[in-house]
């Protein structure tokens, strides 16, 4: 880890500043000027400031809370990465640095990436990157006002009276407060399917995180005249695909552990068992869990998320949040915290809950060495969506599905179109959840530059990489932390280019922006173009030959192209698949194989590498090293199609994966 000893904490006019090499007088000045002013110390905001500094410009970050790093440092340690190989640039560097921390190895451009991590590790990596870039971060800096000259932002003023002036601005907040203050058009809620010609937007009464047993929604079970239990809507369900103002549920991503040092789940001061009557009835109807996820992130800790019909998502508790005042948001966040704390205390302690469930829940607790300032609870509410920009290009389901392609991509997204439930309703006298959608995408897709910039007449020097212009369902795919980092870097790059040309961000030539993004390691198309002397053969390539039966899948991320194939863990010795490249020239080639890893994979997959000297067999373990190119060695190969890699399945002890192979000519 790089040293972070140069960073200091200052109190300036009511705001806490994290500083590096900046003079105290400058930090304490009533007016601070920088080339780029970033609002929101989310992962995307931090990367934007780092990129501006790497391009030789000054940058400051303003954060209304006391937390740095957003969800990346706030408990979301099981990264929603989608196709991990599509995450490049500074985002890719961040995850390589995470790997370096755990492996104790130097970080290089070819280091492996790690997408699971403890919150404090993510914070340390961000601290180091900010220190290296000399980026000051002002905490507790809430917006009081903004000033514009024509269609350009000039300054933002905090509630402490300190002003920040810049040539360019980035709104990297989860809420979109700066774009709102700047007079930029935005929306909240779900569009109808008809709005953008979509199929899974709007009201969606589906099976995800749904009640598997019938449960009465009424205060007195079976008696409608007794009224509804808390959190259940009495409004009839609108037709499928109808638009409304509802948003998907929020929660806190808990960092849990079963270590003896764990902090037991506390009983909140305002605990009311009525809030969990619905869950009690669900348990009594036959549901035994799981009630939350326990994805391991390292150090014996988890990233624990919502799971099932009644879990950590506080469905319906966030409707006012996107446009609420700072103080009102604090109250909403406190209500979410009280609900979630009460939920965990209920599951671990209420005598009406079956003893096995209580014991299983109580075996977990909060990690004592994480979020120490807030008693082990993450300080960052998971704001899954709030305001969304309305620009000249709206990302929709069509882009996610690969049915349309943005001609001006500034980054890739690849995660499932994912909306958590938006409301609880009554259907046929029983309670149902509504709004959960989980539909995969065929592969990484480009995000339009125009979707992160407002209409020029509204603001000419603002970029919005987090609350970007997208429909509700498309945002459900794009809204992932690595993508926010990717878009943060691209936003800052465009801002610096606009400064250099004294132009608006809307007038930055896309060809110029694209060239700089590629030079800085961003990935803008999928699959990526092969490099000089490099040949990649995907499982869909016409040159691939098969024996037996191979099944297409996208269930485990990290694959190349649009999917991968597996042998179904059957017909061992019959199922075979051969990758055959068309090599441009004779020479020595480094040969690599790629697969997606999972515990159900085979650990003893035989691989035959055909080369000038004959056939060399290697055995690979597909339970690990997923989503990366794994070396099979270097071999002399002739030009043309005589070389190959054959995946065999004889005597293998799990699923065998065929994704892609790669040949790289040695210099």
From TrEMBL:
Record keywords: 4Fe-4S, Iron, Iron-sulfur, Lyase, Metal-binding, Oxidoreductase
Example of a GO MF term: lyase activity
Top-level taxon: Bacteria
Residue ranges of domain Golvesin/Xly CBD-like in the record: 535-662
Pfam family, one: FAD_oxidored
PANTHER family: COB--COM HETERODISULFIDE REDUCTASE IRON-SULFUR SUBUNIT A, FERREDOXIN:COB-COM HETERODISULFIDE REDUCTASE SUBUNIT A
Stated name of the protein: Xanthan lyase
Lineage of source species: Bacteria, Bacillati, Actinomycetota, Actinomycetes, Micromonosporales
